[in-house]
Structures are given as C-alpha cells and as structure tokens.
Amino acid sequence: MTSTHDTSRPRVPAVPGRTDRAAAWLAVLACLPYLTLKTAWVAGSPVGIPPGSPLLDHSLVLRLANAGTVVMDGAVIVLVLLLVRPWGLRAPWWLLLVPAWIATGLLLPIVLGYPAQLLAGLLGASGGEAEPFLANWVFAVVYGGFIVQALALGTLFARYVARRWPDVVRARLGGLRPGGSQRAPQWLAAGTLALTPFPLALQLAWAAGASAGLDAPGSVNSRVVAATHACALLLAVAGTLSLTWRRPPRLPLGVPLAATWLGSGATLCWALWMLLPMVSGAAADETSPLLLLVHLVRTLVGALAGAGLVVALRARAGRTGTRGAA
C-alpha cells in the first residue's frame, strides 16, 4: 500500500496561524514590565532599588547600562515581527539568526536558574544570602517576564524554522556532510573540547560550594547560577562534538543543532555580560585573576562552538542546495 502522506511538508502551516499570533502577543506583552522598569531607572527613579544598593553608587553607569538593555529588549519586538510576518521568511538569514541566538543565550540561564532558585528558597536552602541589590518583587516581575518571553519566542522560532528550512527539521545527523574545508569543523571541535574542562571544572566547583577565585563560598543562588553555566558548557561541547563526528547517525539533526545553539549562545553571551563590569572598572575591586580567566575562556568556548554551528548549517545548505539555510 502506498502512503498518501506528503513527508515533504512541514508540520506547521505555511503561513503563521493562531498559535503564532498568540505567542507573538505573549512575547510582546512580556517585554512591558522590564521596559517600564528600565525606562524609569534611566529617568532617575529608584523604584525597586533598596537604599544602600550598589546600583546607586554608579548612577551614570547604571543609566547607560539600563539604556542599552532597553534597546536590547525592544529588539525582541522586531524579532517577533520577523518571525510572524510574511516578509520575515524572505529576510537574510543573519538578520534573524544572529539576534535569535543572542536572545536565546541571554534567556536560557534565567529559564533554568530562576525556577531552581525559587525551589531552593521553598526548601529552605537559601540562607546566608547577601543583601539584595534589588527588591525581591523586581526579580519576580522581570525574570517571570523573561521566562514567558523565552517560551513564546522559542515557540515562534521553532515554527518559523519548520516553515523556512523544513529539510533541516527532517534531516538525520548521519546525512550531514562537510562543506568546504573538512578540517575547519575538526579544529573548531578540538578547540572547544580542549578549552571547556577548565571553566567547566570551576563552575561545577562553585556550584558545589567551593570558593576558588571568590572572596567566599557563593550563596545558594550564586551556586545555582554556576550550575546553569556548567550546563551551558556541557551543551556547547556535546553539540559541537556530535555535529563534527556525526554520531549517532540516526539522531535527528535538530538535536545537536539545538544543543550547540543553546550552549554556545548562553556561554558566550553571559561570559561577555560578566566581563563587561570587570573590564569597565565597575567591578574591578571584586575581580580575581582566576575569575577573569574563567570568563575569558568561556567566551572562547562559546565563540568556537558558535562557529562550529555556522559550519554545520552551511554544510547542510551546501548538501541540499538550499540558499540561505545557514
């Protein structure tokens, strides 16, 4: 019997439907609390900032940083339009994938870490925390909005990829063939594998309560953050090695692509975010050489894994003849 099922079609409608529109509105609405707070801080309002908070010690730095993050969160709205409007399917690949990768990288540790921190608090494991630099309700409002953003954007992005690049969604890892120089993926994987153990060991040690490179053992919340960064490193290296060795061959190609996408983005974006106050002098007194080195190496790991992701996507594009697939 011959099946009449057309496997060439993506599993989502060819044009955005109700699910896409609902996710788009949810993502945009989730931006509003963060944008409102940041705009108030740029204007000089101390709302949500307790007296004595270090955020009040560098008012100019605070306002500049807040202005920059307002622009970043506003870019989410532009990204949503790219994902749901018909002209978004014709946009250059980099115009979509680069901001989507950055957004994923910034949001992933929050999606993983904040619920874990709340759970630790419910279990009574949050003792010994330092005085918060923001009111607790600010974290609930902002991080809750970020998690909603992440889920809505993730839904939109997955459905967009299924519409624009259905061959990638259907492909198996064993069908991936290198394009261009065959040594490039191997060198990128080797670099990622060689550099990852150092920051991974430190992040795991900090998650377990070690104080190497720190003034004192981290709080429960900071230990959760270290654990999420360790998870990102593991995703980056596992995804990169799987794409390079193309094993296991029957694994859907989307699995290692997603692992590399998530791990490389979170590792690079958060390492750079943590380096920013160190190199700008805002946190120079709290920076140890070991801490600085960890974030520098994490930056390299994220960059190498991200480059490996681009190479893999270009290899898939070259094999299928699909222009703009990478």
Structure report:
- The chain has 326 residues and is mainly alpha-helical.
- The protein has 2 domains: 18-164, no CATH class; 173-320, no CATH class.
- The protein contains 10 helices and no strands.
- The protein has helices at residues 18-42, 59-84, 93-122, 136-164, 166-170, 183-195, 197-207, 220-245, 254-280, 289-320.
- It starts with 17 loop residues before the first helix and ends in a 6-residue tail after the last helix.
List the main descriptive attributes of the protein structure presented here.
326 residues; mainly alpha; 2 domains; 10 helices; disordered N terminus; disordered C terminus
Oligomer: single chain
Work out the strand percent. Answer: under 5%
H and E order: HHHHHHHHHH
Compute the average pLDDT: 85
- What share of residues is helical? 55-70%
Distance between the termini: 38 Å
Total number of domains: 2
Number of helices: 10
Shape: globular
Q: Main beta sheet, described?
A: none
Spans where pLDDT lies below 50 across 5 or more residues: 1-10, 320-326
What structural class do helix, strand and pairing data support? mainly alpha
Radius of gyration: 21 Å
Number of strands: 0
Concise structural overview:
This protein is an all-alpha fold. It is built from 10 helices and no strands.
Record the SSE blueprint.
Elements lengths: L17 H25 L16 H26 L8 H30 L13 H29 L1 H5 L12 H13 L1 H11 L12 H26 L8 H27 L8 H32 L6
Helix pairs in contact: 1-2, 1-4, 2-3, 3-4, 3-8, 3-9, 6-8, 6-10, 7-8, 8-9, 8-10, 9-10
